[in-house]
Amino acid sequence: SPHKECLQKAVMSIDICTGLLEMKESVNKAKAYQQALQKYVQSILDSTYYQECVLVDYDFPQVTVKEDINALLNQFATFMKLCGSTESQLISILGEDIMECIHWRVGALMYMLANTIMNMETRRETVDKNWLRECCYVGVLHLMMVFEVRTPLTASTDEYTTNDQRIVELLSQGIRSDTHMLALAYGGELSYWCITNNGSNEIPQYPQLYKVLDTVTEGADRPSIQSVGSIGMKFLSRYIELAKGSLSMQSWQCERPEELLAELRKQ
Q: DSSP state, 180?
């Protein structure tokens, strides 16, 4: 299958890059090492994408779901530690595109997990609610960071100039692709699930879920689980504003986001 072919190529690339990385001391130029590291990380991303697709295809198997999620997060955290101990170091080595991709992938993974469970009655009733609530919380934090990797552009930014006010509005909101709109929608729904899931955890109880975040946030304070509702409202408000404004010609649906926003405002 295409997914298996992708996995095989990724594994081959990982093996090659691992050899290069083990030769770090003999690499004459820092740039060559950085390129090998970037290729290694991209290969890991390809490999984990295959694993994520398998989990989605099999509805995140209930018996192993916690171990499966932890294993994926461990892989992300492990290669990130190779690249640096701060987000600025990670961005300087991996680049903004890959850092944004990492946050998106973890956030989207948590969304697909929660969406699967919330749409299956038996899973909703039997899931560890504290664990699911925390997965939603972690997903929200990563989707927030999707928008923090880059500085929002304006028409006066050297990197991009345009007279199209629609594009200026999108760039100023951090919207560079459909992925960013999905991040707003996913973040809003995860926020809703987080505060309505009847979990009792006011402080994190599952530290393994934070391994990737711990790599980039340098121990910085995070929003509390209780404040996720206000974060979700910001996500959804921005989504609706853009969907009805600058992106009104692209058929982004607002019914569900508006419903969620109304519910969050009641909390």
A: H
d(CA 172, CA 2): 37
Q: Which has the closest alpha carbon to 232: 188, 194, 197?
A: 188
Q: Which residues touch 85 (CB under 8 Å, ≥6 apart)?
A: 215, 218
* Separation CA 59–CA 38 (nearest Å): 31
Q: What CA–CA distance (Å, rounded) separates 143 from 104?
A: 6
* Cβ within 8 Å of residue 100, ≥6 positions away: 146, 149, 150
Query: In 3-state terms, what secondary structure has residue 31?
Result: helix
Q: Tell me if residue 89 falls in helix, strand or coil.
A: helix
Non-local CB neighbours of 202 within 8 Å, separated by 6+ positions: 224, 225, 226
Would the pTM of this model clear 0.70, i.e. be above it?
yes
d(CA 42, CA 206): 27
Count Cα atoms within 13 angstroms, Cβ side, for 13. 19
Work out the average pLDDT over 80-104: 86
Four-residue CA torsion sign, 109, 200, 74, 181: positive
For the purposes of burial, counting CB atoms within 10 Å of the CB of 188, is it exposed (0-12), middle (13-18) or buried (19 or more)? buried
What are the tens digits of pLDDT across the range 230-259? Answer: 999 999 999 999 999 889 888 899 999 999
CA angle 6, 8, 11 (to 5 degrees): 110
* Range name among 167-176, 187-196, 230-239 with the lowest pLDDT average: 167-176
Exposure letters 43-68 (e unless 16+ CB within 10 A, then b)? bbbbbbebbbbebeeeebeeeebbeb
